[in-house]
Every structure is written in C-alpha cells, then in structure tokens.
Amino acid sequence: MDIPPAIGPIERIIARYDAAKALRDQWQSNMQDCYTYAIPDRDLFTATAAGQKKGAELFDSTAVAGVQEFASRIQSSICPPWRQWSKLVPGAGLPKQYRESDELSLYLEEQTDILFDYINHSNFALKSHEAFQDLAVGTGALTVELNEQQNGLVFDSVPPPQLGIEEGPTGMIETQFIDRCMKPVDIERLYPGAQLPEKWTKLKETKPAEKVDFCVASIFEPKRREYHLVVFSKTEKAVMYWRPLGETSPMIVFRWLSLPGETWGRGPVMAALPDIKTVNKVVEFTLRGAALGLSPPFTAVNDGVLNPYTVQVAPDAIIPVMSNDQANPTLRQLVVDSRPDLTQIVLEDLRRNIKRHLLNDTRRQEGPIQSATEILVEQRDFVQLSGSGFGRVQTEFIERVLGRCVALLRSIGKMADFKVDGREVTLKHLSPLARAQDQEELLSLQTAMASIAPFGPEAVMLAFKTDKIGEWIAKKAGVDASVLRTDGERDQMQKQLAAAAAAAQQQGAPATA
Questions:
Q1: Are 215 and 180 in contact (CB under 8 A)?
Q2: CA torsion angle 57 62 63 69 (round to 10)
Q3: What is the pTM of this model?
Q4: pLDDT tens-digit profile of 160-194?
Q5: Please, are residues 311 and 298 in contact by the beta-carbon 8 Å criterion?
Q6: Between the CA of residue 311 and those of 144, 259, 381, what are the distances in Å?
C-alpha cells in the first residue's frame, strides 16, 4: 500500500516503533512494581492468561483502594459522567462584536448540547475511569473513534504495556503506537479496505480463530501539522491500512507529571511506591507473627520415645512421651514475642502518607452532612494538592478529547463546521474542579465590594460596573446562556424601569397652580 513519503517507508515506521518500544522498556521494571502493588488487575507486563489470579503476593490493599478512589475523584472532579464539564465559547481570535454576541453564545450552547449528548451516550465514563487508573502510575491513554455504524462515538483505554509514544520538541506527545492482537477477519472489519498479507488471508480459511499481532500508529507530520493512521505488521514488514486523520489524533496520551528529559510520566503511585512496599512487607510480617501466636511451633526432644519427625501436633491427638515433668518436658511450646501495638503505629503513618499521595480524602468520613462552604473548601484544597497535575490533564486530555470529538461529529454532519482551536472557538471548563477556581474569583469580588460598601452605594457604583456584575457572576457559576438576558433585553428593561419610575414620580408630585 502506498503511503506519503513524509511518513514512510515501512522500514522507517518500524524503526520509529522499535525506538518507542525500547523507551517503554526502560520504564518496565518501575511501572511493573507500581501495577503489582497498586493495580494488579491491569498488570500486563508479565505473560497473562484469561482468568489468571493476580495480586496473590499482596498483603495490604491500601494502595489498591487508593488508586480506585484517585481515579473516581479525578473523574468526578474533571469530567463527571452525564454532565457537561466544558462548553464551547467564542474564541479570542474573533472580533469583539462576535465574542460578545449573545446569538453566537446561544448557538455554541446548542452545539455543546449536541457534543455532550453523544459523549454521554458513549462508553466514555467507563473507559476514562480505566485510563485514570493508569494515570495514577504516570501515563494514561484513550482512543476516540466513530463506532462501527458511523453514527456515534466509541472510546477505549490503552494500558502502558501496549503503548509506545514519541515526544515532540515542545514536550507534547505527537506520535503513538499501539500493539494489537486480533483475528484477521476482525482487522478487515475494523479497517475496511485493509490489505492483509497473503499468509494472514489464508488463516481466515484454515484457522479462523487464530489471532495475529500487528501495530496501529498515529503518526504526526509536522510540515502540514496533520496526523496519519497507519496499520502495519512488523513481522511481515507490510502496511495494511492508511488514511489521513486531519488535525486531530484518535490516540490521546496524557501524563500526571513529566520530568525534563523523560517522555513517560510519573504519577502518585510511583512517588508512594517505597511506602506501599513497606506497608505490604510490614503487614506480611504482622500476619506471620499472628499466625505463630495462634498456632505456635513446638520443640521436641528425640529421647527414643518421641520421634519429632513423625509426630503430629493436632487437636485431640495423643503424643507418647517418656515423662510430663514440667522441669524437663519432652514437648515444649516455642515462645513467640510480638509487638502489635508498635506495628499499628508504623502502619498508620505509612497508610496516611499513601493516601495523601493518591489525593484521597483523609478527613472525617462520617458525621453530619457537609455545608456548601465545607464542600467549597475541600474543592479548593483539592485544586491546591493536585497542582500541576490538574493543569496537565486539562491540556493533554480534556482539550484533546473534546477537539477530537468535535472533529468526528463534524465529519458525519452532526455538528457545524468549526474548529476548537482557541481562536474561532475555545473551551470554558465547567467541571467541579474548574468551578472551584471560579469560586475564588467570586470570593475576591465579594471581598472587594464588602470593603468599599462602608463608603456608600455611590462609591460602589463608581468602582464597579454594577449593571455587568450579575451577568459576570452567572457566567462564572456556569449558568446556561439561554436563561440570561441579552444586551438588548437589558436595555429595554432599563428603559421600562426608568419610565415606570418617572410615572410614579409624576403621580406623587404636588399639583401646580
């Protein structure tokens, strides 16, 4: 199959794939420990089989439960299911009259409703939660494509053992490789028109259930700033499928923290790994000590009557001995000394550190219902704790996912022909975490107005555009534009109020001679 010279030939693609895989292998040991102790169900670094038992070497579930809470909290704070967590608004590149146009804002509100209707009716909530679990280790990945009927969206999470990535000169992930394994007939179904190697074509007839390994790549072409989807086989050295993708990539890779010179991300599990391993080992030793206390070993004297190699210590068993003299017993229980109180103190501190790394709520879990102020304080604290991780997820995940969804829905005629590029149309985030930041601005306005209020209403009106404050507060609170009055409606209402005030003044005025 012919592919553009800018991304080919196949030998060059395979070389880039090998380099990305070698980079992933450098992280394998570290990431495998993270998955073994914190996310055993998604550990695919070792050879696995369906139904295989995982996590048998775990003795403490603090990290396992913490990762689930981390993923759920990130999801509920950034992209809560069945809610609009962002909206389309006029971009900064438009003229001022368009940016402030009520008609354009209402039109983009309608487009936002269409966008999230398709997202909420897809499997986004399920697959994004899986990707956020990988994010706890450092790097998550999600694919966004049209479904098989070409009338909706479908998402899939990609675990790191199946992922290869390339970083561009600006630090953003530009090219991705995904290892896949499926039956040849499914490849043709997933990629219509794919040209399979002759060997794989024969498998459809001789061994229809046998699966083959291949790779799916989203390659960025910097000159035209476009992505290309390439499906190829390294073993057969053949490109089976190619198509241009435009300005958006179906593979969204995002990281929690990226250090200079490192392509793969580092997450809270990686930071807490020493504590996680220590807790696991302490609990293991504690359980062994408890087992020795519940069923202690014995020492026996081989005195010709008792054979310590054949005797069995069990309930209701009779052990023949020469004498039961307490001064010199033939069979004696081994004294085991343990300090469970000291162990509990050590575990409590370590578990608290693990939960703090995973952004778990370490405050009270019981008690009366929290007030709105308490919830606002928690959201503000979470913004401060998440730090740069939240900003990176917004940039590398939220904006790319929504940009890709808009491009796909536009390609099937479900949305208008515009781009979410920050110039024509941009995003206003409405997630609980983003609103927590807006609450800070609302609090600042409230404090400033309260400071000026003692000087009288005239001072407040001189300092603030009081006629604009209501609209500003409503927008910061994420109120739908359809329930807000337009500029024309506000002007008309001000005229009506002024006329009513003038009429009332005339009626109350004394009659003149």
A1: yes
A2: 140
A3: 0.81
A4: 999 999 998 888 899 999 999 999 999 999 999 89
A5: no
A6: 66, 61, 63
